[in-house]
Write a structure and sequence with these properties.
The structure holds two protein chains of two kinds.
Chain A: H1 2-14, H2 17-35, H3 41-48, H4 57-82, H5 91-102, H6 106-140, H7 144-160, H8 166-180, E1 183-184, E2 191-192, H9 206-224, H10 243-265, H11 271-285, H12 298-313, H13 315-321, H14 327-338, H15 346-350, H16 352-383, H17 388-407, H18 410-428, H19 434-456, H20 463-466, H21 468-485, H22 487-498
Antiparallel strand pairs in A: 1-2
Helix pairs in contact in A: 1-16, 2-4, 2-16, 3-4, 3-9, 3-14, 3-17, 4-5, 4-6, 4-12, 4-14, 4-16, 5-6, 5-12, 6-10, 6-12, 6-13, 6-16, 7-8, 7-19, 7-21, 8-19, 9-17, 9-18, 10-11, 10-12, 11-12, 14-19, 17-18
Chain B: H1 7-27, H2 42-61, H3 75-109, H4 117-138
Helix pairs in contact in B: 1-2, 3-4
Classes of the chains: A mainly alpha, B mainly alpha.
Chain lengths: ~500, ~150
């Protein structure tokens, strides 16, 4: 009954008025940026990090987490109503959700998206709670060699499951690792790669990197394309499902929840991968696959449940092992570091209120989203009528204030502009920025563990292969690369991402 | 000479090699140490070599693989967006949030091909009020509202 007492502790923390308020702000902001194109959860979390200095760590994390799963809800709303995915994870929802809306079933599509997400969120919350204790216990037995190998596997896994060229993605990780070790070396006190600039001796801030690569670059790229957005008016009649619709959708919700929960835990997983995988599975097992793309309710129910489940279970590796597996989790590491919490298995024991409070808040946040979003849909859709030429300067302003207030220095703003430039360059060269951010966050940890492992083994590099867990993790990483490199699998993988 | 068939891969390869080489050059002044007792130069050196190798694979492969060209870079959005943000960072301490917000909004709006000066000025004033309200009054961030010689 440990689980129950832990959850009770969590709800005790999450249900205090202050934390309820921050959960509410988080999911509200998340929905907002989910609805708005051109700004994603990574840039938003970067923007808000500085404002959380004054908060209790648990309140800060509750709010930032709410932004991530709130964005999943907001993204699906616009996908269904205007055929425009607010977030990458709701791309597949457009396919059938919008078709349902055109048939006059917008209400049903929105309802199943919200209810499916809520169901998935509930299951995922319990799962996070149940899995975390044994995983943390296991992770506490890890030595530096195991940790180093785990990070290698995590980073490799993250790029294997992402799309694009594998070599490029690994190179982006290495670049990120390098950026991560800029600043004073903790062991020798030497300021590395600071180019004589005193500000750089503290290292490069995670806000600076994330905001540049994900915030500024995105805006610039949007401005380069002259595409116009079209708004189509759909009327929403009754936010409810018929019995038949419910019957058709429920198994898809179950499958989506299961799939999303598993894929969310894998490195590189999370909301986006889960929703894509769920859509292709629903299409494969459907009695009548030709209905897909024409308004099949399973095509909405499955992916929407999956992306929410995946968004939540992707917290598991972060909370138990301290390893972020996607760009949003990398930002959560940044948030924890700002509040002097070293992410890892010890968080659960040293800071149980924070740990369980965060988990409980996810369920509360999901409940808020259902209650909040269904009645407010009209308002969110109105927001879409704001033209982009008015939207992006406002986003820039909040980004600029956010970056400036981290240290109150214009040097940070200049650095961010530099990373914005890099972000555009990377986009032109088709290099994904997410692996770089993961590498950036893990850089110092990876060096430290490599150093300790080799110190203990007196410089023998085979230590990573002699310790069984470490060897297993490294072999898994190598296998992943080999398998993905096979021509057959390579083609399949490309096809999967095409869909 | 072999032709570059995959420009995106080729130039990313060149970029990674350049980063790798400059890492090793800039890092050559840090002590390497041994594997058992790593100096500050050890890990960056490994990463630099790795990056050169990965960049070389990309660049060499690009002579064989086919790929689309690098899309044109329209400089206006890049320069205007980044320039206006840097400008904001440079003046905010001096002239305060209110004025620098208006400057940022009007300057940044010029990046769009649908730039409307009057509209962006109005938006700037409204957002300045919002920014002061939320960040300075609400969140109590340490920022001046008005120029210091205004007595604010």
């Amino acid at each position: 009954m440990d689980l129950l007492s832990h959850l009770a502790l969590g709800f005790g923390v999450a249900l205090t008025p202050v934390n309820l308020l921050y959960a509410f702000i988080g999911v509200l902001l998340g929905t907002l940026i989910g609805v708005l194109p051109g700004i994603g959860p990574v840039a938003t979390i970067a923007m808000l990090l500085p404002t959380t200095y004054a908060l209790q760590p648990v309140s800060a994390l509750i709010m930032l987490a709410g932004i991530y799963y709130g964005a999943q809800y907001g993204g699906s709303t616009t996908a269904i109503l205007v055929n425009m995915p607010g977030e990458s994870s709701s791309v597949v929802t457009c396919l059938d959700g919008y078709q349902m809306a055109r048939k006059g079933q917008a209400g049903a599509a929105l309802a199943i998206a919200a209810l499916g997400s809520f169901f998935a969120g509930t299951v995922a919350t319990v799962l996070v709670a149940a899995v975390s204790t044994p995983l943390s216990a296991l992770a506490l037995k890890f030595g530096p060699a195991e940790y180093f190998s785990l990070m290698v596997l995590g980073l490799i896994g993250a790029v294997v499951l992402a799309h694009g060229s594998l070599v490029k993605a690994i190179a982006m990780i290495v670049t990120g690792l390098l950026l991560g070790i800029v600043g004073t070396d903790v062991n020798s006190g030497v300021a590395r790669f600071d180019f004589g600039i005193p500000e750089l001796s503290d290292g490069i801030g995670v806000v600076v990197v994330a905001m540049g690569l994900f915030g500024f670059a995105e805006i610039i790229l949007n401005l380069e394309s002259t595409e116009k957005r079209e708004l189509i008016k759909t009327s929403i009649k009754g936010l409810w499902l018929t019995k038949e619709q419910f019957k058709a959708a429920f198994p898809a919700v179950l499958r989506g929840t299961g799939l999303g929960s598993i894929l969310g835990v894998l490195p590189g997983g999370g909301a986006m991968l889960s929703s894509f995988a769920s859509y292709s599975i629903e299409k494969k097992i459907a009695k009548d696959p030709s209905q897909f793309g024409k308004g099949a309710i399973q095509g909405v129910a499955g992916p929407e449940s999956a992306n929410n489940a995946g968004a939540q279970t992707s917290f598991i590796p972060l909370l138990t092992l301290g390893i972020p597996e996607n760009a949003v989790m990398a930002m959560m590491v940044g948030a924890m570091t700002i509040h002097n919490i070293q992410p890892g298995p010890q968080v659960m024991t040293s800071n149980p209120g924070l740990f369980w409070g965060l988990i409980a808040s996810m369920w509360i946040g999901n409940l808020m989203l259902v209650v909040l979003n269904l009645p407010l849909i009209g308002m969110w859709v109105k927001l879409l009528t704001v033209p982009y030429r008015m939207l992006y300067p406002a986003i820039l302003l909040f980004c600029a204030i956010g970056v400036y207030t981290v240290n109150n220095t214009s040097f940070d703003v200049m650095q961010t502009a530099f990373f914005g430039f890099l972000g555009v360059l990377f986009a032109k060269l088709e290099c994904e920025p997410a692996p770089l951010l993961l590498g950036f966050v893990l850089g110092p940890m990876m060096e430290e563990n490599l150093r300790r492992a080799l110190l203990l083994s007196r410089g023998d590099p085979f230590v990573f292969m002699q310790r069984p867990i470490s060897a297993g993790l490294l072999i898994a990483a190598v296998l992943l690369i080999v398998v993905i490199g096979l021509p057959n699998v390579k083609r399949k993988r490309e096809e999967a991402f095409q869909e | 000479m072999a032709a570059i068939r995959h420009p995106k891969d080729f130039w990313s390869g060149v970029l990674f090699i350049a980063i790798g080489v400059s890492t090793i050059v800039a890092g050559s002044k840090y002590t390497l140490g041994t594997a058992a007792r790593m100096g500050p130069g050890y890990f960056p050196r490994i990463l630099g070599i790795l990056l050169i190798a990965l960049g070389a694979i990309l660049a060499l492969r690009a002579l064989r693989l086919q790929g689309a060209g690098i899309p044109a870079w329209k400089w206006r959005p890049t320069l205007v967006v980044l320039g206006s943000v840097v400008l904001f960072g440079a003046i905010v301490q001096l002239v305060g949030v209110a004025i620098s917000t208006v400057v940022l909004i009007v300057a940044a709006s010029a990046a769009s091909h649908e730039f409307r000066p009057l509209e962006s000025l109005i938006a700037g004033v409204l957002l300045a009020a919002l920014a002061v309200g939320v960040f300075v009054v609400g969140l109590k961030l340490q920022l001046p509202i008005w120029p210091t010689f205004f007595g604010g």
